[in-house]
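Subject: Interface between my chains keeps coming out wrong

I've been trying for a while to get a sensible model of this assembly. When I model each chain on its own everything looks fine, but I need the whole thing in one frame so I can look at the contacts. Pasting all components below, labels as-is. Any help appreciated, I'm running out of ideas.
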Amino acid sequence: MTIKVGIINYGIGNIRSLKNSLKKINIESDYIINPKNLNAYDKVFLPGVGSYYDAIKSIKKLAWEKSILDFCYNKKKNLFGICVGMQILSTIGYEFRESLGLNIIPGAVENLKKLGCTLKIPHIGWNEIIIKKESFITKNIPNKSSFYFVNSFAYKLENDAHLIAYTNYGVTFPSIIQNNNICGTQFHPEKSSKAGLQILKNFIDA
Amino acid sequence: MLKIRIIPIMLWNGIVLVKGQNFKNNRRATGSPITTIQIYNSRDVDEIIFFDISENEKKEKNFDFIRSITDCTSVPLTLGGNIKTVDQMSQLFENGADKISINSALYDNPKLINYASKKFGSQAISVSIDVKKNFNEYVCYYKNGTKKSDKNFKNWVIECVDRGAGELIINSIDHDGLMQGYDNNLISTVTSLVDVPVIASGGAGNYDHFYEAYKSGASGLAAASIFHFTEVTPNKIKNFLFKKNVPIRENFFKN
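Reply #2:
Try treating it as a single job with all components included. I did that and got this:
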């Protein structure tokens, strides 16, 4: 059986590079523009760059919320949030103004400065992850592997059990999170060369 | 802690990749852009900078070509060369660029940095500055080093960052292509003025040169000739720097 892989296209983010990275591991994927078609897919990526506020506004405006929740909770299929796509899985975000997220992995998304980081923001470049807990997503990934980050905000998890790996940049913050069939990375696997491709492969193979 | 990046620079003249000396790039062709970028990508480099230095300014960007470049990279890619408007940047991002580098257009229109960084975020906007020493003073040049600017060098560095540049690429015209070492004084001058990441470019010819530029404060170490013309690869440099305790991204598959 071949699995169907989709990338949610809600007008936010460089989805082209994700599709190309999947091609490199021999996975064909479709852009999904209509929320009604979501359930035709087995594994879905929720990408995102820019602000939490813009991303969640766009998700709600284009009527994605209900489909995503149904996909995750009722169909129990696998969803992978990338960068801001991961952040909006949280309960609430504080970029620009308070906005309610999808609340799939409880937590809040705060500015790194507010979390205590005194280094230069945005956090941009290659940084290490420290693996905290075993997960399908980190299979064959050595501890302290580097990934490519671009972020000014970070997740504060409500439940430590959802923490798979964290990263240190003046302050520690979650870089990989997972709640059962739902996972997310703060870094960009599609821009993280071979280590990133391995992460994408782990998600597809799981 | 963030890693120090080793960055191959590619100069494309509209047909092939070229690499000359002191910004005179018409002499030596170094290969096909697509094959070269595929090799860098398969070698798991940290990042790639691709400059279009073709001089036909009226020429429209060929997006089929740009996609053939961006489609084969799974590391961050900066595109630069002949970029004058925010619309052009939008198109380049849509076609797979991760960062845009701007240079010559800024001398007439410095506000372009403000508009670009507001629209795309400063993390996506890299300002490139070409510098030459005249009577012991650093002077900014543009249009591939052919035009001299009136801007005061230090003020211009600060202005670019104040306007929203997320990163600076500092190219030494005097050291370019000679492989005798970076202009370390230039690098430390710039890194002492601003706190955005500075990418040093121009002059790398051996392992120690990279270490010296790192010591001068560079966050990214760019090079072209050493990768085109010698056996040295980005990975060999990373291994060398790693042994000297420079924070380097270890390659995922060690070989």
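Reply #3:
Confirming on my end. Chain B touches chain A through 32 residues (CB under 8 Å).
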